[in-house]
TrEMBL record, chain A:
Every TRAP C4-dicarboxylate transport system permease DctM subunit domain range: 8-430
Function: Part of the tripartite ATP-independent periplasmic (TRAP) transport system.
Membrane topology: Multi-pass membrane protein
Subcellular location: Cell inner membrane
MF-aspect GO terms: transmembrane transporter activity
One term under GO cellular component: plasma membrane
Domain of life from the UniProt record: Bacteria
Regions crossing the membrane: 6-33, 54-73, 93-116, 137-162, 174-198, 210-233, 239-260, 267-292, 312-330, 337-354, 366-394, 415-436
Family of this protein: Belongs to the TRAP transporter large permease family.
Protein name per Swiss-Prot or TrEMBL: TRAP transporter large permease protein
Keywords on record: Cell inner membrane, Cell membrane, Membrane, Plasmid, Transmembrane, Transmembrane helix, Transport
Assembly with partners or alone: The complex comprises the extracytoplasmic solute receptor protein and the two transmembrane proteins.
TrEMBL record, chain B:
Pfam families recorded: DctQ
Name the record gives this protein: TRAP transporter small permease protein
Family of this protein: Belongs to the TRAP transporter small permease family.
Chief localisation class: membrane
General function of this protein: Part of the tripartite ATP-independent periplasmic (TRAP) transport system.
GO MF, one example: transmembrane transporter activity
Organism of provenance: Paroceanicella profunda
Subunit structure: The complex comprises the extracytoplasmic solute receptor protein and the two transmembrane proteins.
Domain of life: Bacteria
GO biological process terms held by the UniProt record: C4-dicarboxylate transport
InterPro entries tied to this protein: DctQ (IPR055348), TRAP_DctQ (IPR007387)
Domain (Tripartite ATP-independent periplasmic transporters DctQ component) ranges: 15-141
Subcellular location: Cell inner membrane
Length: 437, 153, 316
């Protein structure tokens, strides 16, 4: 127990000393394991974890879903989503920001990752908002927040990882993410309206037809719809598994992009390289988290926590509130992937010791699905919570001249919307479970 | 490095193809691709390690540079150098342990379930790639320090 | 006092964990008056196939796993427990396996680097299908069957089936989508992996169409740190006693599964004489090949197999 806490403290120090998170977790994990267990076992644990994680069949979804998103982005389909969203609802005050949120939601339906969604949409939506004098904070905030939907609206790399960690049905997790995802879009749109209502100068009225909706844009929207349909019908119609869906999605997106002549050779090569880069980055984090959680597991943290809750006899909902608070605090400093990988193995066994009375959560199989959605929404919040908000960093990377503080300030209304959403989703499990049941 | 980029490209394409051929094969031709499961595993492993040196060279790992921003350019350079040297050490240990793993897989004669492909070569490649990544991290640390020197002048 | 860490990779509520591993861990503490305790982890310290080596290298003190996790010849003599017609109860088969493998086939030599605490098998394996009964070998031809590999894969291929491998949780995805037509599983696995909605019939063969063998092992260094009297106390509740405990856990899980299977209306039928004799013919070939191979190391495989069947109560 003490060892785990010391481990977490050292980990934070290393992270703030700009050691890449992946290698900080690996180092602390091995050192902690070695201290408690001996160096030979610690090093063999390390070697095996590195190798096995890289060769884990289920994790093949990571490069393939990312590749799919990159191909679509490089083919300019995201542009079409933004133009169509503007045509749909953009005349309202703050219309471009609303369109940014909506198109983020749309792109999330074909992107497995939040960072990729934010990166793609920032390139698409930011120029228009700047052209019409939108406040940088509102503009970047809408995209950073909208981008977080990438891991909630299926397909989702994070939901797949959660499914693997908890041995639960990935197909059901995907379905469960749909309504909370739509709720997220609705609340973000509301956040834009409220912000603009309070301070209209943030979003000057766009005059004329600020964004033309071309034939190519419509084709782009159709391509996204077709691809989402292929994935969903394929999974739920029984043609392929959620894991295979990634490979099929990648293949179909390539075929569509080439058939429509939307992908240049340079664009394709860039999509490959971006995918390779993201893959190595994500796997390094997964390996580090795995090594670190082996240490925490060996040190007995998960068991100590379960025993503690059983001993104190707290009610299930009290425990859930505590877990939410822990997630919000961890979300300040931890990166999303490591947050899931480090916390889920510790928390999800608690579901089996918690008594939810005669609610739908009495069925542990449903409780695991619901908890997965709660955890993913908590992770979404962490992506825009300072000081370490990965989506905010992505925006900062694309728009180097915008100060980090401006983006975090702009994200605030969306963060409030997220808090409302996570409370709704936690205390009304039916929001997540309605489609599953 | 260019060879690794090309290899990554081929592997991503091959991963896509394996699933597509498997699914299409079994629906339209009643002939799933034998060993699709383990081919995916081996190629995924190869992809992760082929891409690792590229990501490391490009500074693509997730890091948090809040303290660095507070410390100014010179302090930031020192932190960058520290972070990269640390990463290089960890990567070197990865390389060493993957080498041990490769030796063991080779001695045991470990093969995949259906196609009976040997596992050891992938582990050797992984060890080599981690060594290359360690070198890339050292190079980044060096670049950060020489940048700092210039700031001092 | 010594605390031993047991890395457990099955789900924490799996019958084997609840009714064998944890009770045994508790017993260790009792028989050593608390001088030795066993902490069972809810999350493993590595992938399932790594668990034998993890004990040998001391990543964990105690691990369990399947011999068939390794594709090499390390546990060649353990394969006696994978054949057809070995036992209708996991308890009897497990005890027979412990006796024959340790007494006649020098199990300790094949478990080099660890202290062998236990050996066991699960209940009889069946052939579950998403269609009607298979009465003749001809009906088996061309069916796509998921197997764990090894003997049962060879056997079914000989009988004309296409065999495939995928991880156990993937079986649900593939069977529900008709990617595979059937699966070689126990009663327990049929329900554990939620296949009752998709399986229509299950073929039962006297003594099981296949089985799998499992080990429970301890790091040698950790074992040697325990006093001789505590070692003796632990050995008394391990070995044959643990084979009985683990076997009973599997049998109880099979019994619970059988109720769900009959409630789901799945047709569990005895294989036709024609089918049994076809299996016997094919099986003999593999039994003989295995016996010839262990003979090179000086073991009488044929006699061992005969003794095992006698002990488990299915002897001819
Ligand atoms: Na998504
Ligand atoms: Na954060």
């Amino acid at each position: 127990m003490t060892e785990s806490l010391v481990g977490f403290a050292v980990l934070l120090v290393l992270i703030f000393a700009r050691v890449p998170i992946a290698f900080a977790m690996s180092a602390v994990g091995v050192a902690g394991f070695g201290y408690m267990r001996g160096w030979d076992p610690a090093f063999s644990m390390l070697g095996r974890t590195v190798f096995e994680t890289a060769l884990n069949y289920s994790l093949s979804v990571i490069p393939l879903f990312i590749f799919m998103g990159n191909v679509l982005a490089r083919s300019g389909f995201a542009q079409g989503l933004f133009a169509a969203a503007y045509r749909l609802i953009g005349r309202l005050p703050g219309g471009l920001a609303v369109a940014a949120v909506l198109s983020c939601g749309g792109f999330s339906a074909v992107s497995g990752s939040s960072l990729a969604t934010a990166a793609t949409m920032s390139k698409v939506a930011m120029p228009s908002m700047r052209r019409f004098g939108y406040d940088d904070g509102l503009a970047t905030g809408a995209i950073a927040a909208g981008g977080t939907l990438g891991i909630l609206i299926p397909p989702s790399v994070i939901l797949i990882l959660y499914g693997i960690l908890t041995e639960s049905d990935i197909g059901k997790l995907f379905i469960a993410g749909m309504i909370p995802g739509l709720l997220g879009i609705a609340l973000y749109v509301a956040a834009v309206f409220v912000t603009v209502l309070i301070k209209p100068s943030l979003a000057p009225k766009a005059t004329g037809a600020p964004i033309a909706l071309t034939g190519a844009d419509i084709v782009g929207v159709l391509a996204v719809v077709v691809l989402f349909a292929v994935i969903m019908v394929g999974i739920y119609g029984g043609f392929f598994t959620p894991i295979e869906a990634a490979g099929i999605g990648a293949g179909v997106s390539l075929v569509i992009s080439f058939a429509l002549r939307r992908l240049t050779r340079e664009g394709l090569y860039a999509a490959f390289l971006e995918t390779a880069g993201a893959t190595a980055m994500i796997f390094a984090v997964i390996i580090g988290a795995e090594v670190f959680s082996n240490f925490v597991n060996f040190a007995g943290l998960p068991d100590a926590l379960s025993d503690y809750i059983l001993d104190t006899g707290y009610s299930a909902w009290t425990v859930m509130v505590v877990i939410l608070v822990i997630y919000l605090l961890l979300g300040c400093v931890l990166e999303s992937l490591s947050m899931i990988l480090l916390t889920v193995p510790v928390f999800y066994p608690l579901l089996y010791t918690m008594d939810f009375g005669d609610s739908v959560l009495a069925d542990p199989n449903l409780a695991v699905i619901w908890f997965g959605i709660v955890v993913v929404v908590a992770t979404e919040i962490s992506l825009i919570t300072p000081p370490v908000g990965m989506n905010v960093f992505v925006l900062k990377g694309v728009l180097k001249e915008v100060p980090l503080t401006t983006i975090f300030r702009g994200v605030l209304p969306f963060w409030v919307a997220d808090i409302v959403r996570i409370l709704l989703i936690t205390f009304l499990p039916v929001i997540s479970l309605w489609l599953v049941m | 490095m260019r060879a690794l980029a090309a290899l990554s490209t081929v592997l991503i394409l091959a991963l896509t193809l394996v699933t597509c051929v498997d699914v299409v094969g079994r629906y339209w031709f009643n002939a799933p691709l034998p060993g699709a499961f383990e081919l995916t595993e081996l190629m995924l492993g190869a992809l992760v390690f082929a891409a690792l040196p590229l990501t490391t060279r490009d500074g693509g790992h997730v890091e948090v540079d809040l303290v660095g921003m507070l410390m100014g350019a010179r302090g930031g350079a020192v932190l960058t150098a520290f972070g990269n040297v640390f990463a290089a050490l960890v990567l070197a240990v990865f390389a060493w342990r993957l080498g041990v793993e490769a030796l063991r897989l080779g001695e045991d004669g470990s093969v995949t379930n259906a196609l009976r492909l040997p596992m050891a070569p992938v582990a050797w490649f992984a060890a080599f790639a981690c060594l290359l990544s360690a070198a890339a991290a050292v190079a980044r640390a060096g670049a950060a320090m020489s940048h700092k020197e210039r700031l001092n002048d | 006092d010594t605390e031993l860490v047991l890395s457990s990779w099955l789900p924490p509520r799996h019958p084997l964990v609840i009714n064998a591993i944890r009770p045994w861990a508790k017993e260790v503490e009792e028989v050593t008056q608390g001088r030795v305790s066993v902490r069972v982890l809810t999350k493993p310290l590595g992938a399932p196939p790594a668990h034998f080596d993890m004990a040998a290298e001391g990543v964990a003190d105690i691990t369990y796993g399947l011999h068939s996790f390794t594709t090499d010849d390390r546990f060649e003599r353990s394969r006696i427990g994978q054949f057809s017609f070995l036992g209708d109860s996991a308890e009897a088969a497990s005890k027979a396996f412990w006796q024959v493998y340790t007494e006649d086939l020098d199990a300790a030599a094949e478990h080099k680097g660890v202290h062998l605490l236990g050996l066991f098998m699960h209940g009889p394996g069946l052939l579950h299908r998403n269609g009607p009964e298979i009465t003749t070998p001809a009906e088996l031809a061309g069916l796509k069957i998921r197997t764990p590999g090894g003997y049962i894969a060879d056997l079914l291929r000989d009988l004309g089936a296409n065999t495939l491998f995928m991880s156990s949780p993937e079986v649900y995805e593939k069977l529900s989508r008709g990617v595979i037509d059937g699966v070689a599983f126990t009663y327990e696995a049929l329900t554990a992996f939620n296949l009752t909605d998709y399986v229509k019939s299950s073929m039962r063969v006297p003594g099981g169409i296949y089985n799998t063998t499992w080990f429970l092992v301890m790091n040698e260094g950790a074992w040697e740190k325990i006093s001789p009297e505590d070692q003796a106390a632990i050995d008394r509740i391990s070995g044959l006693a643990f084979a009985g405990l683990a076997g009973k856990a599997w049998d109880a899980a099979d019994d619970a599964a059988k109720e769900k299977i009959s409630a789901a209306g799945i047709d569990v039928y005895q294989a036709s004489p024609e089918m049994v004799s076809a299996i016997k013919t094919a099986a003999t070939k593999y039994e003989d090949a295995w016996a010839a191979s262990v003979k090179e190391d000086g073991f009488d495989g044929t006699a061992a197999l005969k003794r095992m069947r006698e002990l488990s109560g299915v002897g001819e």
